[in-house]
Amino acid sequence: MDKPAPIGVGLQYNPEILDWFPFESQPVDLFEVLLDAIMGPLDSPWIFRPGQERRTRALGDRTPLLAHSNYGCEFGFGPLEDSPAVRRHVALAQAINSPWVADHCFYGDASWLDIWSSPVQFSRPEIIRVADRARRLQDLYGMPLAHENAAYYMPTPGGQMREAEFMARMVERAGTWLHLDLHNVYTNSVNLTGYDARDYLDTIPLDRVLCIHLAGGSWYDGLYHDWHDSTVPEPVWEMLDVVLARTLPSAVILEFQGRAHHPQTRELGGADDEAMIRGDLIRAKTAWDAAAARHGLSVAGRAAARETV
């Protein structure tokens, strides 16, 4: 499958902050939709959660929507056909006319409890197993599938290579793509001995990056966490500049969240946090516009790409 045309800069449409953040009035090129937030229960006949279809389609009438799968559990060890990704996310991504879909390169099972800190094992046998499932899943979606790199506090035992090498070899074998979360790379470089953010960017195939995630985090109990509860740190902006100097992805998405990840997460809300989000959005759009010009993408070309979604 071909790489989708560049669209621009957007926000993750996060239900946790809908009560105070005016998403619909933001100057974005697209919104990223969390499929788990809109999907019907697995023990129900519904693809959409009751009440979510009308709201999601109304949002899509105004702005292109990008599907993002968190809890698809496609890289667990149960049958792929039984995973939430196949049972719900495939139909949802197609229903919102997403130009591509992103998932998480995590282990997952029916408990949904072990995902956030369980990266896949970076080993040769897992390249074969994960790539096989990724290729089959991309065929079911019928659109490009991009894998998001994980933030984690220790690697899964038994690894035989660096994470970046694993991701590069896996997407090459599967024919799939990358969803590069720069804050996850930064978080791992802070917490894990020997994890080099610059080496990560030098190792993965940047031409296969469809989308970039930007976010902020917080320190707690001696570790830096990807909690999406603060402004994007300077090292992450610097990494964005490095990537955009070499390639132009199809989109850049900013993430902000409530208190979903941990009870100690600072709960966003109020005028200061709204200003923080707007400030990061403007900075990301400035970086994107400059990069788009360097890569020869005109304003008209971006508008045409949005119209095709």
Word description of this protein:
There is one protein chain. The chain is of the alpha/beta class and 309 residues long. 39% of the residues lie in helices and 14% in strands. It is built from ten helices and ten strands. Helix 3 links the parallel strand 3 (65-68) and strand 4. The longest helix is centred in the C-terminal third of the chain and has 24 residues, at 271-294. The two termini are 16 Å apart. This is DUF692 domain-containing protein. It holds the Pfam family MbnB_TglH_ChrH. InterPro entries: MbnB/TglH/ChrH, Xyl_isomerase-like_sf. It comes from Tistrella bauzanensis.
Write out key terms for the chains shown.
309 residues; alpha/beta; globular; DUF692 domain-containing protein; Xyl_isomerase-like_sf; eight-stranded parallel beta barrel; two-stranded antiparallel sheet; 10 strands; MbnB/TglH/ChrH
Q: What is the topology?
A:
Elements: E1 8-13, E2 30-34, H1 35-38, H2 52-62, E3 65-68, H3 84-95, E4 101-104, H4 124-141, E5 145-148, H5 163-174, E6 177-181, H6 182-191, H7 197-203, E7 209-214, E8 218-220, E9 223-225, H8 234-246, E10 251-254, H9 271-294, H10 299-307
Parallel strand pairs: 1-2, 1-10, 2-3, 3-4, 4-5, 5-6, 6-7, 7-10
Antiparallel strand pairs: 8-9
